[in-house]
Sequence to fold (234 residues):
Amino acid sequence: MMLEVCSISCSYGRLPVLNEVSLRVDTESVGLFGPNGAGKTTLINTIVGMMRPSSGSVLWEGEPIEELQPHEICRRGIAMVPQDRELFPFMTVEENLDTGADYIESARRRKSSQRELVLDLFPALADRLRQPAGTLSGGQQRMVAIGRALMASPKLLILDEPSVGLQPSLVSEMFQRLSTMRGNVAILVTEQNVRATLRAVDRGYVLENGRIAFMESAENLGRNPHVIKSYLGL
Fold:
């Protein structure tokens, strides 16, 4: 097992957010669904070391990592693309991509090959490498953010709401790209666009009120009456 979240509980002060949440990701693509306020981003922030759980543990390749700093977790092979992208707007696309590899020794050695992988995945960036990232469209900036994370040569790529702020046609393209990544890197994606995500992942979890309500294959979640009514609008 690559990632195993074991009975995690988290709070903001006295306000409980996660209550004994367990989740696992192996060499696969996994979706994490739920309404706003369900605790999806809190769970992701706990996995990558930006929050500390009040109880429970996070195991990466069998070893606990919940006490590690984010940069230490990244160096072990977990990369995250935050919801708001957080690019360096005045730096070029190429410079933004390279920052994903510059601080990880093993990734620096593979910088050229990883850049080729990113440009194969997002060919629209190939002609924009010298362009300031802040001048790109929202969809292109999302591509740069995902590409920068891939430059770290991660074993697990975590995406937090990748479709936020994108027009529907770009959302469709984004999830087509995610589908092509399956098998090359494990993926954990939090997303409210359940319909599109279910086409791009193998399994999914539904998080409601700080607890896991369902865990099913993508196919079965798409048939679940509660998911259909609450998240697919049918």
